[in-house]
Amino acid sequence: MRLQSKLALFSAASKILILLLLVLGLPILVNKVALLNADERLMQKEERMYQIIEEQGIESFITSETGAYGSYNLFKEEFISLEEISSSKVVNSIENSLRKVDNQVVNYRVLSSTFDLGEKRYLLEIGRSLATIHNNSKTLQAYALYFLAAVVLLTVFSDLAFSKILLRPLTLIVKRLQRVEHPSTFTPKKLQTSTDDFLYLNNTINAMMGQIQEAFQKEKEFIGNVSHELLTPVSILQTRLENLLADPDTPESMLEKLVDNLRTLHRLKNIIQALLLISRIENEQYLRNETVDLTQLAEEVAEEIKERAEAREVNLHVEITGDYTLTKANQSLLFTMLFNVVNNAIKYNKPEGSICIKGQPHGKDYEIAVKDTGVGIKEEQLPHIFSRFKRLHAPDGESHGLGLTIVKTIATFHGIDLSVESVPSEGTTFRFLFPRQA
To answer: Where exactly are the transmembrane stretches of this chain (predicted)?
Structure first.
């Protein structure tokens, strides 16, 4: 999973967790706030009531006929009562209390306060319906939930946008590395960011790729130089051995040894020529200025190698559908590429086995597949079959040489996507996906 996705998921999960905790604790918190607000309102009314009594006198509320005062609003949500009590009684509290109003029992939040006026003591009670307080509490809870949900969504989107902006340099680094098909194609670039970590990462990658490019360049130069220098003495030795072999004065006992030495020199010369070919392709010493008909190319390869297939009792056939022409290619290199794959398919096939060279359109591109019924390649060896630095052994004990390395090098040179599928003891399929050229 990408770092940006992980950050976004963590941010969303943490905020949702906080929201759930708030949702669970919100009713208690809002109820507490609603009660505190109701108590504050009751105390404000208490102060206001004392001011009115001071201005108008207690007689405006309590007369000798009534002895007490009581007032309820229209919906019985609030009430105020005032009565004379015993001078020994003192009540100062705010608590829940049940009151009977019009034959209905109503639960109130009641503020009770005693005060002395003249020689008499009075009890002032101011109440507010708990149902009204709870209704207000529910309204507050609903608005609070909407507000919290909006805040969470807003912060999640803002975090996602910020993380995208923050990690944009890392995304640029990753995309630049993904476009690199070979170390030689990498171009160091400066990164426009104020984040020191990304600057350090980019500079480290640039330095590392520079070292890799230098190592690859030295390796290519070494292979090219050594191959070129070795080819001359090997050719001289081969000529001398051939002359000795043709000399009638050469003893019979030496002929067999000379043939073995010539065979060894021939293998060495093939390896040197293969390395030299790879080096020249990688250094782009070949031109891609020819037009190549893939149908004709496949048929030419099959015609060239059919005698070898017949000698090994392998059935070779070609199935090509559609026409496809490469306009920027090298005919001889493409021929070598397909020839090496088909040659390996013959070499590692079974008696009376088969090889099929199949070509068909693949979307806008064109695919040529070489499928055989040979010994196959082990799964753990597949990632290394194109490496020139590994020697892989077939089930028959023979080694895979540089032929597949040449195949991969030519495919890369032409921008061909090469893939391999193989099942041991059943066969191998090489797929060449030729890109559409403008």
So the answer is: 7-30, 143-167
